[in-house]
Fold these 3 entries.
Entry 1:
Amino acid sequence: MPDLAIETHGLTKRFRSQLAVDGLDLAVPQGAVFGFLGPNGSGKTTTIRMLLGLVAATAGDARVLGSDMPRHVDAVLPRVGALVEGPAFSPYLSGEANLHRFDAADRRAPRRTRTARVAEALDRVGLSHAARKKVHAYSLGMKQRLGLANALLMPRELLVLDEPTNGLDPQGTREVRALIRSFAGDGTTVFVSSHLLAEVEQICSHVGVMSAGRLVTQGTLEEFRDEGETRVLVRTPDAVRAREVLTGLELGINIEPAGRGGREAAVSRPDATDDESVTARIGATPPEVIVAALVGAGVRVRGFETLHANLEQRFVELTGEGFDVVQ
């Protein structure tokens, strides 16, 4: 197993009668961009708060950057940048003054480089032009970027970001994505809690999915996709014969007209004179075996495609819930 930036065993949090996090075994490799997915109320933010020592776990243990939390919170947190549940700033101070204030509260932050580091952090998140503007006049997206700037005031080995693109316009979202990629390029581990599937697919190397307080899966993004239901799509004028062959291979079959855009609508007796789309759940059957069986049975194959589950389909398979895919 690679070195882990975050590792938990049986991590549990109960609030009176509510079990918010249930026996979490999490493994986040160093250098990864880890997408922590789940609907509202699934336990994501509670998990983050336990990892950062903001709330005590009911049971289990957590290690962050190789140290037990919250036992070594004083040694760990200076190495971690965090943006949790939205940034909170003094509204009548400027963005620049707020960052100076937060940096002064960090006893490990060198005073002599403070001005330069604040300016660099503001520039990196695109807020140099608004450095002296009072925060109450900032948009929600600007406040979010200021929160990221605060997390970047000192070099960090781990960034924990809770919904980092919340409130950002499309351009701001792209900028934050580019920032996250640059953090990972510098060797920083990034732990991103998000409800946007498109965001996770574009920036993350690993994912974990929460549902009702439990971690239902974790691993690389490719492993997550590959674990889903795989299908083949066959376009052929011999749909009836194709169905017989595929049924003989004990595959789950659906047949539909080729022009219907891939929706699975069963057709009892398709017209064999026109191309039909025949889809089948293939399980462990190699696609080349399926093609050979079709051709050997005289089926005219005009198109053949392997269809892998996308991130949204995998999420629904695992949780039985819909998911916000709108950016």
Note: DSSP finds eleven helices and 15 strands in the chain.
Entry 2:
Amino acid sequence: MQLGMIGLGRMGGNMTKRLTERGHDVKTYDPGVESTAATLEELRDELSAPRTFWMMVPAGKITEQTFQTLLEVGEKGDVIVDGGNSNFRDSQRRYTDAKERGLKFVDCGVSGGIWGLEVGYCLMAGGDDDAVKQVEPVFLDLAPEDGYAHVGAAGAGHFTKMVHNGIEYGLMQSYAEGFAVMNKSEFDLDLHEIAGIWRYGSVVRSWLLELLVAAFEKEGGHLEDIRGYVDDSGEGRWTIAEAIAEDVPVPVITAALFARFASREDESFAAKVNAALRNQFGGHAVHAVETAKAQTKDPRA
């Protein structure tokens, strides 16, 4: 089928390649990359009605701007797919806005990262049945066998992907903490080897573990050249916010998000408060910050 792919970054570019390899006619638009169209209007004109536009751009301002432009240039019966990591509340609003203009909207959670080109993407689609059916040939070829589902009404695709990423936070943090314990142990452990054997027969085997083995192979067994600074793209926060609204306890996901926050602090003020309090009530020693003078050898010595 025909598709207009908007955004040709790591995800959109590879998805375009996968679809083209499977016989789809993919027109493209990305102002920063060579594309078939120079504007969204040109992209519209390259496609036959009813059209399918797939947005694969960063969540937030860029997605909103692109969506609003598509509302203007699109025509009745066209489908707009958001394959980025948008907040599901925004997707519900966009569904309503599109419907008022006679357009259709599908929110599609996409998991697979840079490996999706080769092994396929897990796809979670939300929206009306007719809109999803219009895009389904693309969904089926992007996903591996049994890796795609129409999970519910508008917003359900991005809601499901949000929770998926929250779970991912917890899994990653669990691996991180376990390997940190082994790295600090009295034993001279080969972490690369241990991660490797855990892939076979172990109850903790997973694709994330396979990726950790690949990271050890690339970066070395102690990841010496990687700074321990972990970003988050929002889905973990949204998952926790929804859990609070629904009175559902999610302590593991919450702790994993807070661990990412902690990774960004060179010096924790909270830890300073803890140390000062221990000194005040129990006389426990505090570790003074070394001054620049103490750190620098006096050339006169």
Note: The longest strand covers residues 104-111.
Entry 3:
Amino acid sequence: MPSLKEFRNRIASVKSTQKITKAMQMVAAAKLKRAQGAAEAARPYADRMASVIANLASSVQGDGAPKLLRGTGSDQTHLLVVTSSERGLCGGFNTQIVRLAREKISELQAQGKTVKIVTVGKKARDQLRRQYASLIVDHIDLSGYRSIDASAAQIVGDKVRALFDAGAFDVATLVFSKFRSVISQIPTARQLIPAKAPEGATAPDLKGASYIYEPSEADILEALLPRYIDGQVLQGLLENQAGFYGAQMSAMDNATRNAGDLIKKLTLRYNRQRQANITKELIEIISGAEAL
């Protein structure tokens, strides 16, 4: 049985941990509000851009379409851009993203496809290289960004387009976690190249109007597609950031509650041990007095 001093030290240690987890919960809650606002603000732009791309792409077919739209004509080599957080203490947030990436990798390899991986975020790299180190071709470090913005997304977009221009892959897919609520984040895989509108995106209703484009639809797509890809990457990174803070807030709240429960249990055991020691001392005193 631990001594009373050991119980006191353990209770003090758990209380210190509880203060840390409570502080981290409050910080995550403050950052979540900003991150959630940024993610929700990016959705209308991404959806509208997807509608424009869907409308223009319907008018451009075959060899006249930009390479980012038509692809290489093959789907043998796939690039997975797996995004995650730079830090942990967020429950199963990163594990869910990596699990989806592993499922995609297994599915593609079962079909005889070649898979390559670019990781964005230290946690994705650390988890994937345990099993797929040979498939990781690059890692993009965004730890220097205190908040995700368009310049961060452009770094990822430029890297993906550079690999595509070099013929390193045929199809690129972004793997991220879509923010739904504090306790719900949905792992999502979205194709970047060949560019296509996400499921559910519809072309804008032109109400029967016919537009003549100057320059041509192909030239407009040539200019818009890199921005569209950067916009999809930016939305994925912002959704990831909001999901991370939501998951961290929830995890720290659970940790704080668990620490409180442990303190109660330790305090109860401490009081029982203290009472047992007092009773033992009283018995020894009484027994000594009776012996005299």
Note: Helices lie at 4-57, 67-70, 93-110, 122-132, 150-165, 217-291.
